[in-house]
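Standup notes
- DV: blocked on the single-chain target, sequence here:
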Amino acid sequence: MDANGDGIEIDEATPLADQTAISRRTALRRLSLLAGGAAALVAAETCGATLWGLYPTQANRFGGLQIVGRTSDFPAALPQECALNRAGVFYRAEAHAYIVHLSARTEFLLGGSALTDALGAASITSERDDGSYWLALSQACPHLGTKVAFRQACLSFKCPSHGAHFHCDGEYLDGPSPRSMDRFPLRFEGTQVIVDTGQLLRTVARPESATRLLTIPPFPCAEP
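- DV (later): unblocked, structure below
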């Protein structure tokens, strides 16, 4: 067996015409393999795209970033004027959260740097131009995880299981809860309100008299 100047092996014992036919068959076989590989790659990409559509990322699903509405969907209110899903307090089932929007005219018990620090510790943001206050409260009671309800007659949240009671800003009032209501980070993109349901903040303790933000309601909440 020898090789010609083109690098093609020549078997001197085999007629040249037969060797040419063999070379053509080999080339066709290689082309067929290449075509099959390309088809398999296209099929894999198509399958991958289909699976991506069936199983989307966590964006806008619970456990990730949730666009819960526009700022205009959440009219602000004073604590004593909150009305569920109308002003001040809004429930968003997809985020497992209550969106609280308090008026810029809200009277806090703290002031100056003490107020700034307390708002930051409570994950209450005031980034909008109108100076109002926003936060996202987890619906789960910190005691045993029951969904708390906003009691309109009490202007506050109360757990139906064991009576843990919280102000409209999530501050602990009374009952068996070990801390104030848990919350999610909230931010804005333009006019969109975005809640990060992948981060549950369990760091807001029961307030002391010197750290409480809002005045305790003057009447007990008799509703279960």
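- Follow-up: The first helix runs from residue 16 to 54.
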